[in-house]
Amino acid sequence: MFNLNEGLWYYIVNVANDGLPKEKYILLTLGFALISIAAGYLLGSINSAILVSRLKYGEDIRKFGSGNAGMTNMLRTYGKGAAALTALGDVMKTVIAIFIGCLLGGFGYMGGISVGGLYCELPLGYIAGFFSIVGHILPLYYGFKGGKGVLCTAAMALVLTPVEFAVLFVVFVLIVYFSRYISLGSVSVAFLYPMVVSFHIRLAFSGANAQNGIMALITIVIAIIVIYCHRGNLKRISEGTERKLSIGSRKGNGDGTDSK
Questions:
Q1: Contact yes or no for 10/120 (Cβ under 8 A)
Q2: Residue 196 to residues 161, 191, 204: CA-CA distances in angstroms?
Q3: What are the residue ranges of helices labelled H in 138-230?
Q4: Span 232-245, mean pLDDT?
Q5: How far apart are CA 58 and CA 145, in angstroms?
Q6: pLDDT of the residue at 194
Q7: How far apart are CA 42 and CA 34, in angstroms?
Q8: pLDDT, tens digit (0-9, with 9 covering 90-100), for 13-52
Q9: What angle (nearest 5°) sits at the alpha carbon of residue 242, between those of residues 248 and 165?
Q10: In angstroms, rounded to a whole number, what is the distance separating the alpha carbons of residues 217 and 147?
Q11: 3-state SS class at 253
Q12: Fewer CB within 10 Å, N or C, the chain?
């Protein structure tokens, strides 16, 4: 009987067809991987900040503040309501993308962490989540100019690694509370994300395998991408010119200080 923990891949290979020839097995795995990549990227390319700013205000958020199409710039430019809608949209598109990947490959929760499927050799939920982040940063529909992937990364962590999400959320809140720099909190948790995931994998599983290695690699690449997207913020923090958290100001003129 089909269930989400095992995924459609397991059902087709081991239940519906009682096993597949090697060629069909490989094609099925690659096909599901391509679907996960496409679903992640196309959903990730739906930029909530741009949609909210256009539909609600008749403007393009990329023309205000830092020019970044993310939640922090929405918060500073239009206020809490617009930021909340943006956050909801960014989280939901990533969750849906991951659900599609896990529907195909399975969630495979073991030891409090998703291994991307108990039987499929590829962690399709992680792959879909990763490409949702890529789509958010380089959206197909908006000239490849989007946000910085922080909320999408947080949504991915929440669904696939909830323990890590809880720990990193506390770290993020503390850093932002004491520093007033959202960008510093974002970069810090992005840096820590692959470390805590790799540590959890080692605790949950006695031996390494290819799938666990792919999971760890994906989180490392995500961390590198998010930190790279914040390189300007880090430079301004070191120079003391990074703007601290403020809400609802329409006076920004491209200072580039937001994070999401």
A1: yes
A2: 10, 10, 12
A3: 150-160, 162-179, 182-204, 210-229
A4: 87
A5: 19
A6: 94
A7: 12
A8: 776 666 667 788 888 889 999 999 999 999 999 999 999 9
A9: 75
A10: 22
A11: strand
A12: N
pTM above 0.85, yes or no: yes
How far apart CA 130 and CA 161 sit, in angstroms, is 14
Closest to 133 measured CA to CA, from 83, 81, 94: 94
Distance of alpha carbon 217 from alpha carbon 62, whole angstroms:
32
- What gap in Å lies between CA 220 and CA 51, rounded to an integer? 30
* 226 contacts 185 by C-beta, under 8 angstroms: no
For residues 56-91, one letter each, b for 16 or more C-beta atoms within 10 angstroms of the residue's C-beta and e for the rest, the string is eeeeebbebbbbbbbbbbbbbbbeeebbebbbebbb
Between the CA of residue 179 and those of 72, 154, 165, 176, 185, what are the distances in Å?
16, 20, 21, 5, 8
Q: What are phi and psi of 67, to 5 degrees?
A: 85, 0
The residues near 63 (Cβ < 8 Å, ≥ 6 apart) are none
How far apart CA 140 and CA 1 sit, in angstroms, is 38
Provide the 8-state DSSP code for 65: B
- What would you report as the CA-atom Rg of the chain, rounded to the nearest whole angstrom? 19
What confidence category does residue 146 fall into, taking pLDDT thresholds of 50, 70 and 90? confident
In one letter, which amino acid is 216? A
How far apart are the C-alpha atoms of 81 and 75, rounded to whole Å?
8
